[in-house]
Automatic annotation (TrEMBL):
It comes from the Bacteria. This is OsmC family protein. InterPro entries: KH_dom-like_a/b (IPR015946), OsmC/Ohr_fam (IPR003718), OsmC/Ohrsf (IPR036102). Pfam families: OsmC (PF02566). Gene3D superfamilies: 3.30.300.20. Signal peptide: none annotated.
Length: 130
């Protein structure tokens, strides 16, 4: 990866597209947003793969994230609370919780920060009618 300094932040190009990074949301994604997005994106992708392998019948998976930052330490991210809402049919809550724990063990982004950022995960299952 190669990053280029521009007037209002950093820019980089990937096969998928360009990414603008800036401390000012008017000019790009803020670094903490990218950190949270990488953790939620990785965890959600791993969780989805597990659900698909087990043939869990789900229509939607939504992850909401709340971030706690410490202004006394350069706005360091101290905690990320991820709340998973899964909508589907014939959902087994205990099995979903177990699968979420497995996904945490296999998510490289969560594993990379596990000793410096508290990652909390909760799950909610919404049963859809037939």
């Amino acid at each position: 990866m190669e990053f280029h300094l521009k007037d209002n932040g950093m820019h980089t190009k990937f096969d998928y597209g360009e990414l603008a990074i800036s401390g000012n949301e008017d000019y790009g994604f803020r670094p903490f947003q990218l950190m949270v997005a990488s953790i939620a994106g990785c965890s959600g992708s791993v969780f989805r793969k597990i659900l698909e392998k087990q043939r869990t019948d789900f229509e939607d998976l939504i992850i909401s994230a709340e971030v706690e930052r410490n202004p006394q330490e350069a706005n360091r991210i101290e905690k990320i609370a991820l709340h998973y809402t899964i909508k589907g049919r014939h959902l087994n809550y205990d099995k979903l919780e177990k699968n979420l724990k497995i996904s945490r063990q296999n998510c490289s982004m969560v594993r990379s920060v596990e000793n410096s950022i508290d990652i909390e995960e909760t799950i909610e299952a919404i049963e859809l009618s037939e």
